[in-house]
Amino acid sequence: MHFGVDYHPEHWVFPYAGTADKPESRWERDAQLMVAAGVNVVRMGEFCWGLYEREDGKYDFGWMRRAMDVMKLHDIKVVLATPTAAPPVWLAKKHPEILPLDDRGQALHEGTRHAYCMNSDLYWDHCRRIIRAVAENLGGHPQLIAWQIDNGVGGHGTECSFNVETQRDWHAWLEAKYQTVDRLNEQLGLRFWGQTVARIKDVPMPMHAPTVHNPALMLDWMRFSSDTCVAFVKMQADILHEITPSAPVTTNLRALTRHFDHFDMAGVLDFISVDSNATLKHKSAENAMEIDLLRSLKKENVRTPDGEGGFWVIEQKAGQVNWQDVNSLVRPGVVRLFTHQLLSRGANGVLYFFWRQPRIGSEQFYGGVLTHDGRGDNRVYREISQLGEEVRKLAPALRGTRVTSDVAILYTHDNEWALKLPMQPTKHFNLRDHLQLFYNALHGRNIPVDFARPTEDLSKYKLVIAPSLHMLAGGEADRLKLYVQNGGTLVATCNTGLVDEHTIVPDTGYPHDLTDLFGLEVREFDVLPPSEDNHLVLKGAFPTTHLHPARVWCDLIEPRGCQVLGTYSKDFYANQPALTMHNYCLGRAIYIGTLSHQPFYFDLITWLRQLCNLMPLLKVPDTIEVSMRQKGDTRIFFLLNHQNSPVRITFYKPMHDFLTGTTFTGTYDLPPHGVLVLDEQGLRG
Ligand code: GLA
Q1: Is the beta carbon of 120 within 6 A of some atom in ligand 1?
Q2: Whose CA is nearest to atom 9 of ligand 1?
Q3: What does the alpha-carbon distance between residue 166 and residue 517 come to, in Å, rounded to a whole number?
Q4: Residue 316 Cα, ligand 1 centroid: separation in angstroms?
Q5: Cα separations in angstroms, 279 against 119, 283, 328, 330
Q6: Would you put residue 608 in left (φ > 0), alpha (ψ -120 to 50) or beta?
Q7: Measured from the CB, is residue 315 less than 6 Å from ligand 1?
Q8: Distances (CA, A) of 121 to 118, 156, 157
Q9: Percent of the chain's residues with pLDDT above 90
């Protein structure tokens, strides 16, 4: 288990933070404080190009090697980043064509970070050169255990640019995809508004224009930009694999907020690393969903530095951020709680951002493990030191364990991009909110969840939930059918199968290619303003604890063999189906034609739990988050109290807590933000 910090030795070497004789002695002090806090790994170097190469071709890696040597003296491992996220000023001055152009053709200028166009050949050449130089000069250092590629790829909205070289690559991408201009005109539907082109080279980039671009063209642009980001990372991974084959590569990802396909990105990495901004949210299920989304990106062929599966948190915020309107301190115990939440969901490495608040630069008021004074007698340092001790205790028990799940929620980037296009039936539909409603209900019942693309092997899941796969490729629809045919239970919802992978609406009825699976056809759909509700009238075995509204979107469903479990209560579609179930071969296909409030999803999960024989991990009060890591018969349970008040839990068997080493039985008051890590031996009593 790796426990560490994001360290920026360059913040202290100039002006010297040590003495005139020993200018780098601050590094030594940092390493001592790190070791005392339980740190065994640092990430360094993500913005150092301009320091490694102050002038074109004049390299200086000596200072970083010395920083790594200091780490060696203290037995601290190093993840080194390639420095391509921050090209040096001299490079942009010499070759301004590397600067990215925005959708109005304006350059984003040098002087910060991410000022590069990912389609620039020249930028690629310079990246290859600096990566080789870094890897050849520092890659052989005994402390190096992994590489981080770039930093926050696509950050600050730089996933795409509108440069001449981007246009060249765009046309080559379209050429490879469509081959002929006729096919391109047809599949992109360019005859709409008479925008057909005579040559593939005439296809515009979706630049600032009087009104919206063609949706199929926009979707391809997103796919092309995504492929560009992935290719940029793969180019770096290939060089690093060649020079240092034993060091796995990663890059720091956020919870699917950047405009590239994170599953594709995961495919070119050896392991997933995440930036956790958990300080932002207060609902545990929201943080948990983000973690599960990221955890799910790479399910196979994971290669972390210590041979474990799972993922790393390469930037866990140690304190306050600097980009909200009000950047309050993170309350005592909260970083600890978030760290255990990450561990409980599969993290095998956690590094805090950052080691010490810098005295310089735009992030000088960002929280750090150390405050500006660097003394190491501050509150956050003490909290991180306690965590270091806890992680040391937990590491042997967690070795080889992983998170497993019987339920998958389906997600694709193509679909989310399609749903975010302008001119949709309603602006009030939000896919993430829709996913969160299902996720919250599963999380509230302590049922673990994976996220998956429809094209993955779904056969291992007892239940698959597919919220609003508005854009559904033919191949994806086939996979869903196969899953149900073989006995799976699939839940789909309104706004499914309205367009295919070419962004073309079917003329065979919605949801396209799935009307037989669900035994119904959606003939029309009504969308409701936020102030209006319809209502659901539910029948049969479906449990109802509340009167459930139908909101935002109401499909008007014509049954074709499905069983009707619920209807709408009013409007011209009163008594028409809203919730249906269809037996299909060995499985069941359930369709929810609308959205509702949170209690509906709790009722739904109660019903599905019985239908699919899903077991909650533990029975504890609702406000406690439970997750589990498992290896064979060993099962380690994490119980987290996200509330500001204690929660009483009753244990009917003796429990063993790894953090305190105590065994207890009966009632236990889990304090505010408290954590228990229990093992099954204890549970068996
Ligand atoms: C990301 C970056 C860091 C830092 C933080 C600030 O996580 O990787 O370098 O800028 O954002 O939030």
Answers
A1: no
A2: 151
A3: 42
A4: 10
A5: 35, 11, 10, 7
A6: alpha
A7: yes
A8: 8, 21, 20
A9: 90
Q: Which two tokens stand for residue 546?
A: 């509340």
Q: How far apart are CA 591 and CA 612, in angstroms?
A: 16
* Residue range 93-106, pLDDT digits in tens: 999 999 999 999 99
Closest atom, ligand 1, to C-alpha of 321: 12
Answer whether 152 contacts ligand 1 (Cβ < 6 A).
yes
Which residue, among 214, 226, 222, 221, has the nearest Cα to 186 in the 3D structure?
214
* Closest by Cα among 481, 522, 476 to 501: 476
- Give the residue, by CA position, lying nearest to ligand 1 atom 6: 321
Listing DSSP states for 195-256 in one string gives: ---SSGGGPPP--S-SSPPPHHHHHHHHHHHHHHHHHHHHHHHHHHHHH-TTS-EE-EE-SS
Q: pLDDT tens across 473-530, in order?
A: 999 999 999 999 999 999 999 999 999 999 999 999 999 999 999 999 999 999 999 9
Q: Which of 8, 10, 151, 280 to mutate to test the pocket of ligand 1 (most atoms within 8 A of CB)?
A: 151
Q: Which two tokens stand for residue 398?
A: 């967690």
Strand 594-595 versus strand 624-631 pairing type: unpaired
Q: Is 151 in the pocket of ligand 1 (CB under 6 A)?
A: yes
Say which residue, 544 or 466, is predicted with more confidence. Answer: 466
CA distances from 659 to 75, 619, 674 (A): 25, 21, 11
Give the residue from 413, 433, 434 showing the smallest Cα distance to 476.
413
In order, the DSSP letters of 539-594 are: -TT---SSPPEEEEEEEEEEESSPEEEEEE-SSTTTTSEEEEEEEETTEEEEEE-E
- Residue partners of 78: CB distance under 8 A and separation at least 6: 41, 42, 43, 44, 68, 71, 141, 143, 144, 145
- Asked if residue 354 has a cis previous peptide bond (ω within 30° of 0), the answer is yes
